[in-house]
Amino acid sequence: MKWIYLSIAILAEVTATSALKYSEGFSKLIPSLIVILGYGISFYFLSLTLRYFPIGVVYAIWSGLGITLISIIGWIFFKQHLDTATLLGIGLIVAGVMVINLYSESLPQ
User: Fold this and answer.
1) Which residue in 107, 93, 5, 1 sits closest to 56, CA to CA?
2) Which distant-in-sequence residues (6+ apart) come within 8 Å of 71 by Cβ?
3) CB count, 10 Å around CB of 29?
4) What does pLDDT average to in each consecutive run of 10 residues of the chain (109 residues)?
5) DSSP-assigned letters across all residues of 26-83
């Protein structure tokens, strides 16, 4: 369940961040409600994840995968340009998350 909690936290955060773009400074009701609900769900499931993993490791995975996913969403749905430096940086973030998941002794198996 611990990985499911973290996955829900990441997906809810990405959904909320995507809706933030559409909320136009919280001036549009539906996107604004999605933002509030999404971040609420994300933080709730993030807090459940902290029962199992250290906070620094959880935050690195949550934020790293969130950054990667929201960058892909920005590229596909918002037609935002990802230059070479951006792609390299995102690649390094993904590599860092993989190193944590594959080699860290901080994560219980």
Assistant:
1) 107
2) 82, 86, 90
3) 9
4) 95 97 95 98 97 90 93 94 94 90 76
5) TTSHHHHHHHHHHHHHHHHHHHHHTTTS-HHHHHHHHHHHHHHHHHHHHHHHS-----
